[in-house]
Structures are given as C-alpha cells and as structure tokens.
Design brief:
The chain starts with a helix and ends with a helix. The radius of gyration is 21 Å and the shape is globular. The protein has 15 helices and two strands. It is mainly alpha-helical and about 375 residues long. It has a single domain, classed as Ammonium transporter fold, CATH 1.10.3430. Strands 1-2 form a two-stranded antiparallel ribbon.
Length: about 375
C-alpha cells in the first residue's frame, strides 16, 4: 500500500513539474508528498530544524497537538466550528498556493498550521466571511509581503486575528460568546449553541474576581465560554509538554510567559484586590495558555538566543495582563505577542553582542 502510494505521488510530481499547464498544482502535490514521506531539503531561512525531523514533520507535530483543541471546539460549540476551520483552509491554502505558484516554489507547510491556528483564536459565532478575510489578510500581510515563511516578522495567524479584531469589533467582542453546549453529545449533535446560549462576557472580559462566577476547574476542563481553541486548557498544558519534549517548541518561552502573567496579576491583585484578578485567573482567564504554547513559540517570529527567550516570554505574560487591565481589549495576549515579535530581533542582537564581547574580554 505504501509502495503504491509512493509510485502514485512520484508520477504526479513528475507530471506536474514537467507540464507547464499543471505547474500551479505542483506545490500542492509536493506538500502532500513531503507531509507523508518527508524530504531531505535544507531550509534557507528559519525555522532551522536539526536532526532527523524535517520542517514538514516539525509542523505536523504542531498540527497533531492542535487537533484535540479543534475537536473540543466542535464538541463544545457545534459543527459550525468545523465549517469555520474549513473556510480558513479553503481561503488560506488557496492564497498560499497562488503565491507559491507565482514564485515557482512549493506550497509551504506553515500555511497548514496558520490555517488551523487562526480559526481556533476566533469566537465560535464569527461570521464565515470575517474568517475568510482574516486568514487572507494574515497570510498576505503577515507573511508573504516579507518574502514568505522564514522571513515574516510577525505570527501570520495573529496578524489576521488582530486585523479582524480591530476592523470588525461587533463580530469579535460584544455579544458573540457562547457557553458550551450541554449534554453528553454536546456540539456533536448540534450545528451551534443557538441564541439562548449567548453570554455577555467570557472570563477574559471580567476585571475582578467578584465578577467571575466560573470555577477554576471549569476553566481547565473546557466548560467555560471563550474562543474556539482556548477553552480546553488542561490539554493545552499537555500539548505544551509534548511540544517541549519533542523539541518542536521552546519550553522556556512557554513557562516564562506563564510566569510573567502570573506574577504581574498577583502583584496587581495584592495592591488592589477588588480591581485585579489573582495570579491564577491571570493565566486561566483568557487565551494566554493557548498563545504561550502555540503562538509565542513560533520559531520564525520568536527569538533564538536562550536568554532572550526568557525575556521574550516574561514580556508577553506581563504585557498581556497590563493590556487586559488598562485598555478596552480583553484579549491582551494577542497584542503582547505581536509587540514582542517586534522586539525579538533586537533582543537577540544585544544578547549575541554581550556574549561575544564577554569572550573577547581579557582574562
């Protein structure tokens, strides 16, 4: 069976490469081939993967860790979530294929991760057209204008999320949050949660402990409202451990982001208990865990030096809580990661200069 599939893919690769009329299809065929069998190519830009795991298998681990978040999103909020993910893939991969064909390059595996990440950051009631606009904007202006994967300064999924968040606030903030669908079958037996399940706010929209009726257990086990992929926090923690153990993502960025958010919220709560959430709520109250595990650890837009990874994560955690408390935006982690994306190169620059200066210093 594997040998037959190998021969079919070899034939399709040869035909789409040699036939000018079929050349636009070649990037998609190559993506399927290397997703299943891998490839020995060396990357010219980040991420630089070491060892036996090539970039496509590298991204495959991320996708496998994201799939339970997506499945839980469908279970909690209905099959509309699956349709939202499908829209993201249709438009996102389509745009990526257009750019790949125009540049005579293969379809990059990063698009498959971006197209899954993006809808998981959206409210479950997001209109399909907003999802389509967001993923196209994120890929074009978050990655392709910089030269494609390996050259982007910002996380493309967050660029798209930030764009629709600011451009279409009525669809992204007010009155769009739904409680999980009750019952054993949950959302597997429904299209969406329905009008009756619409709530006024998620835990991330609340600024005091007294306002938040959601127990920590419900926040951990996906029984609270929120964006599609952020609610099953117990799995997000497990996924973070898997990504760290397989060396796909930086554990130092994950843990420092959590520490930064926890400490900042704890200090604020100690100074003003009625106005600030406690440290645990600062970590569990929104999408911080999802952002820390799957977005802050982006190997392209994040830092590469060990010391700067700690500073990078601490900055994301602290800034996300400060934005949550002192602005009108409850999802501070999105802006915090984008801000620290801009700081990552300069942090690496000074860390490298400091390291080599120390080596050149006389004994």
């Amino acid at each position: 069976m594997i040998g037959r599939l190998r021969r079919i893919l070899d034939y399709l690769l040869r035909v789409t490469r040699e036939n000018p009329r079929l050349s636009p299809v070649h990037p998609a065929v190559d993506a399927i081939d290397t997703f299943l069998f891998g490839k020995g190519d060396v990357t010219a830009g980040a991420p630089h993967v070491r060892g036996h795991m090539d970039v496509k298998r590298f991204m495959s681990v991320v996708i496998l860790c994201l799939l339970p978040c997506a499945a839980w999103g469908v279970y909690a909020f209905g099959w509309r979530v699956a349709a939202l993910i499908a829209v993201s893939y249709i438009f996102g991969v389509g745009v990526e294929a257009i750019f790949a064909g125009a540049r005579k390059e293969t379809l990059n595996e990063g698009a498959f991760v971006t197209c899954l990440l993006f809808p998981l950051t959206l409210p479950p009631t997001t209109p399909f057209w907003v999802c389509a606009v967001g993923i196209v904007f994120g890929i074009v202006f978050g990655k392709e204008v910089f030269g494609g994967t390996g050259y982007n300064v910002f996380n493309p999924a967050l660029v798209g999320r930030c764009f629709v968040y600011i451009s279409f606030p009525r669809h992204m903030v007010g009155g769009v949050w739904t409680n999980p669908i009750p019952g054993a079958a949950g959302g597997f037996a429904a299209w969406d949660a329905g009008v009756d399940a619409v709530t006024s706010a998620t835990p991330a929209h609340l600024t005091t402990l007294q306002e938040c009726p959601v127990p920590f257990g419900d926040l951990l086990f996906g029984l609270a409202s929120g964006s599609v992929g952020e609610t099953l926090r117990i799995w997000i923690v497990a996924a973070g451990l898997i990504l760290a153990l397989t060396r796909v993502a930086s554990f130092s960025i994950m843990i420092s982001t959590v520490i930064g958010a926890f400490v900042t919220a704890a200090i604020g709560h100690h100074a003003a208990p009625s106005a600030w959430p406690c440290g645990a709520m600062g970590v569990l109250g929104g999408g911080l865990l999802f952002g820390a595990v799957f977005m802050a650890t982006d190997p392209v837009s994040g830092p590469r030096h060990p010391l700067t990874r700690w500073l990078y994560g601490l900055g994301i955690g602290a800034i996300s809580v400060l934005i949550w408390m002192y602005s009108g935006y409850p999802q501070g982690v999105m802006f915090a990661i984008l801000l620290m994306n801009t700081a990552a190169p300069i942090l690496d620059h000074f860390a490298i200069r400091r390291r080599y200066r120390a080596r050149r210093a006389p004994a």
